[in-house]
């Protein structure tokens, strides 16, 4: 029996978490007496592991300082959670209906994200959807996107082959990771990178909303 696996990015694909990411990044830079990066620059690095994100934001800095910033970002995010100042991270419209429809068609569901294990667990538990996914891959246990490690492990967990798997994401890092893992790449237009960028990075197509995504997958499964 063929196992079909749909692997979703989290931030910018399943849920809109940019407010918290930008706030934590601003606090991290302030902690280090640095001017905060523009919000659009922070959105550009969502999906990367933290050291790689810091390297993109501050390419002139030393590698050790990128590592320090990554740890400071985690500290700021944990402080926001402890202080209960985290903003609500809503699911995008149609997310739950799409998960229902794909499961009804026999698809297994997974996640590959630059979030930490703790951050992903917290977000999924808040929305009551953690048990919907058979595999959860995070930056805590893998090289940063676009390395294929997350997708390779997700397919092993699910018992799926590359030709029967698809990566669904909003950034060029997701599309490049899919290409590196030899799986189909579907871009979504509601996230943090533009449709043309996603196409150039290898997206098979870019969908405008979750109903369109569901229809596309059920037509091409």
UniProtKB/TrEMBL annotation:
One of its GO terms (cellular component) is cytosol. It comes from the Bacteria. GO terms for molecular function: phosphoglycolate phosphatase activity. Coiled coil: none annotated. It holds the Pfam family HAD_2. GO terms for biological process: DNA repair. Gene3D superfamilies: HAD superfamily/HAD-like, Putative phosphatase, domain 2. This is Haloacid dehalogenase. It comes from Pacificimonas flava.
